[in-house]
Amino acid sequence: SFVKDVPNGKADTAITRAVIALGKGLSLRVIAEGVESDEQRDFLADEGCHEAQGFLYTKPLAADDFQLLMAQFIEQQSKQSQR
Description:
3 helices
């Protein structure tokens, strides 16, 4: 929930930076949840967050819908690599 006001909220930004630093210091992969904007994604990437998930990428999906989405993505990547 502290990603909500990143990068504009002073407290949320400080907490997010601390959590990322803690995770990296413990040699963990850091995954941010609740990413809804390009600004949040960019801030997290700049701070060294490894992964992100949230409505910026897709709404929550049932397992079957997720498999379909991934199949479409893989097909699209395959077509692009053949060009």
